[in-house]
Amino acid sequence: MKWHQIDPYALYKSLNTDIGTGLDEREAGRRLQKHGPNQLLEETRTPWPILFLEQFKDFMVLILLVATFISGLLGEYIDALVIIGIVIVNALLGFAQERKAERSLHALKELSAPEVTVLRAGKWQSIPSTEAVPGDVIQLDNGDRISADVRLVETMRLAIEESSLTGESLPSEKDALALADDSIPLADQHNMAFAGTMVSRGRGKGVIVETGMKTEMGKIAHLLQSTETMMTPLQRRLDQLGKILIIGALLLTALVVFLGIIQGQPMYQMFLAGVSLAVAAIPEGLPAIVTVALALGVQRMIRHKAIVRRLPAVETLGCASVICSDKTGTLTRNDMTVTKLWTFAEEWDVAGEGLDATFSRAQKASSPTESKDVHALLYNGLLCNNAEMIREDMSRHSQLQKHGDVELNGEPTESALLLAAARAGLFPEEAEQTYKRLDEVPFDSSRKRMTVIVKDRHGHRYVVTKGAPDVLISKCTSARVNGETRPLTEAMIADWNQTVSRMAKQALRTIAIAVKPLPGSGSYQATDVENEMTLIGLQAMMDPPRSDVKEAIEQCREAGIKTVMITGDHVETARAVALDLNMLPTHGEVMSGQQLDALDDHELQALIGKTYVFARVSPEHKLRIVKAIQQNGHVVAMTGDGVNDAPALKAADIGVAMGKTGTDVAKEASALVLADDKFSTIKAAIEEGRNIYDNIRKFIRYMLASNVGEILVMLFALLLGLPLPLVAIQILWINLVTDGLPAMALGVDRAESDVMKRAPRDPREGVFARGLGSKVMTRGLLIGLVSLAAFVITLYGTGIPELTHAQTVAFTTLVMAQLIHVFDCRSEYSVFHRSPFSNKPLLLAVLSSVILMLAVIYVPMLQPIFYTTALYVNDWLLILALAALPTVALGWSGLRK
């Protein structure tokens, strides 16, 4: 028999599992070893030997290998060996860079993989989807991505979107009934949930029957990538820039070779010099270094609890000018606690921690069970609830919250209602023994309510609804007052609205409760009975702002970033929280969803610039808000957690999903996931995004200025009819020593002190904007001139012309000028703006480069290979003075500005 034919009891027996406790950890581990990880076969990663050999495919490396071959034919075996050695070392550096980038991106993919909620040893817990095994009891909720094939055993209005597997565009309604036909198509297997599909409505429970390549998705070998790897716009621009630089470098190199030959320089030497100069001048390592810088930035973001799902987001983060943030859980702690109870007859205050709480009315302590209305308010809040209370042996779950001596597992609002009832001595296990749930319509952000139908021991049925006060009062025709049901009058409605507004101004979130008895006979669905109900009252809860949010909002304001609150809460609640967080300026406006509906797109675009708070909005409103802000020329970061938030998250320049409370749908639509759901994490990610872009600019400036200096020292010498200041091997060695390690170390440089005091970067900004192009040319020109000056002074100023000595001085000056210049690259302003000791990897890289340079100057066996000779104290005084001149002079000029 196939899985869809088996009834639940036969299913449990077949998979040796228990629907009440699930598998224990030891058995789950054994099954994981037997069946392997729950994942589809991925594209094979390039083996490291192949990755290393691919380093030799570069056009310039092939030219060097040709030069090596020619050197060997001409008997220049030392030159040939040195060139091949440098090629191998360069290949090793390139291999290390690509390997690091590959590993970082692979780790990024693993971090953003979805989790599943399974029952292990009687406790619900979240685990990586790769660790799910056959026999695991799994919970499915609205917005979950299903990661294995599941036989459903319980469903509550469950519908699953299966287009990725069956091609059906409409969600498939699910139930738990066994099917007789063994050849029924996948699209008609209503008791099955398949890997790769998505819960679009309701919730359910099931047992995993197949994992990995044994799932239906695995059988058709359709690989779903949860993380896209793509080039960022900057990488694409640098790729185009690299092609232009190759053409320019080859033309300049050809000019140098031509000038050398017509001046009588040996053709072989000029050929080697030309090839070496071309290799040194072309920044072929730039794309790899950019990738590594992006990957390192991603790793730093992870330490800040920000998980990047799409690499282009790293670059876009630095351009963000508006953050649209949810209130609950992002700006506030999402740690709801009921502090007030209100009925049409009385108002109560609730205070305390955990189960130890005090109920009082008119400032006098009292028991809530003395009031029939308050008892009904608390008890029905317990019935229309899916949260769980754990009092001992706590499990780890993504939504577990501690409240003194109890822990609550579930959505924060429902957890608050559950705790309020428990404080009054009303516990969920007792309610479950008295009432059986028959039907449920889960909470939906567009409906703003949740409804259940329950039946008591005597067969009496009731509807219980909880939700937004303004929504529920429109569904009611009566109210409960002192234990009696009375018609809802205009005066009572006015009193209700006034109370909701008063509590909202106190930053309290209000949840209304309503009930309705049903006749004993007939069939009902929850959606059909949400009318002519009886209003019981309000439970008002406090959700305090996060302690770090006010400072983060102020830092964003200093960085030119506007923070906008978007919430489904009451207008006055949103206003009170915004004022508390200092995010609503004097001229700032608060707009409701109703007001937003009354505006056309042009009117909204005109008003949105001065609006800082949007309240009582739906997910559909979020999309309009994002588009209106974008039309005003802003780069928008947008937070969201629900299924209906996905369109707005996709439309935003940077979609930001909540890691704790966010659905898989929201996470997949986003570019960034906040592991801790904190607003301050968005600020930290934007700061890191700006720093990453700054660091990329730093090593572009460093590498290109160094390359310009190398070309110009050779070009100027030939134009002046001078001997060659550098030989080919020295040029290759400079490229190896100065371009690699220091450039990599710039990628881990810390942000400048003003990184969050600048205006956001224009996303259309070119690579060489803000003076980068002029800095590259001026630094490169000066580096070339001082190197040439060192060569000329040594060759002609001592009275004893000695070419090798002069070339050694020029070689050393060029290396030292570039290594000193790397410290200048750390600041947009001046080398004196930053301590040279604040980047330890850079100090280590520079020290390593100096040691390698000294080795070829002073080690006797290396001197004939690199055409060097030992230098004297006077030489070093000249070298250090000239090498420091470009950086010190321009640094002083920048400091004065």
TrEMBL record:
CDD domains with a match to the protein in the record: P-type_ATPase_Ca_prok
GO cellular component: plasma membrane
Cell location: Cell membrane
EC number annotated for this UniProt entry: 7.2.2.10
Membrane topology: Multi-pass membrane protein
Transmembrane segments annotated in the record for this chain: 56-74, 244-262, 268-296, 699-720, 726-748, 780-798, 804-822, 842-861, 876-895
Record bears the keyword Repeat: no
InterPro entries: ATPase_P-typ_cation-transptr_C (IPR006068), ATPase_P-typ_cation-transptr_N (IPR004014), ATPase_P-typ_cyto_dom_N (IPR023299), ATPase_P-typ_P_site (IPR018303), ATPase_P-typ_TM_dom_sf (IPR023298), ATPase_P-typ_transduc_dom_A_sf (IPR008250), ATPase_P-type_domA (IPR059000), Cation_transp_ATPase_P-type (IPR050510)
Keywords linked to the UniProt accession: ATP-binding, Calcium, Calcium transport, Cell membrane, Ion transport, Magnesium, Membrane, Metal-binding, Nucleotide-binding, Phosphoprotein, Translocase, Transmembrane, Transmembrane helix, Transport
UniProt xrefs under Pfam families: Cation_ATPase (PF13246), Cation_ATPase_C (PF00689), Cation_ATPase_N (PF00690), E1-E2_ATPase (PF00122)
Molecular-function GO terms, alphabetical: ATP binding; ATP hydrolysis activity; metal ion binding; P-type calcium transporter activity
Main localization of the protein described in the UniProt heading: membrane
GO biological process: export from cell
Catalysed reaction equations from the record: Ca(2+)(in) + ATP + H2O = Ca(2+)(out) + ADP + phosphate + H(+)
Domain Cation-transporting P-type ATPase N-terminal, chain residue ranges per copy: 2-76
Family: Belongs to the cation transport ATPase (P-type) (TC 3.A.3) family. Type IIA subfamily.
Protein name in UniProt: P-type Ca(2+) transporter
Organism for this UniProt entry: Natribacillus halophilus
